[in-house]
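Residues and backbone
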Amino acid sequence: MTELSTLYDTDYSAWTLQTAELIRAGRFAELDIEHLLTELSDMSKSDRRELYNRLLILIAHLLKWEYQHHISSERWRDFKGDSWERTIVEQRKRVAVLLRQSPGLKSVVSEVIAEVYPDAVDLAQKETRLPIATFPQSCLYDLTQLLDDDFYPQQ
């Protein structure tokens, strides 16, 4: 076990600083490759998890907007869906920023949308109490629609 490898377990912050310095200096043979690969892999997983979580909330709210908004607004005259709209706006912004900061995620967005959709339906169903059959089997929204500030689906 190298000194740098030991540092990873005892002082992560110092490990990252020393690793960055070794890379800047071109001293690649001294790198703690095993832990460096772990960290790089985890960074990718972390970004993907964040994308998943943002899309989960965004899609669930768009589903609620599409399948319950008209029911709620008919039932309660004062219901406008403002809190849903604020959540949609916020999640759109956060997804857009994440994709700008981590452009590599663009290559997996369609895959993540398909992956997250059943959980978004489950969340929307639990919050609306509408029958699960109300919602489409697969996501009908593409990335362009998900990020379009003017897109609010209609029943």
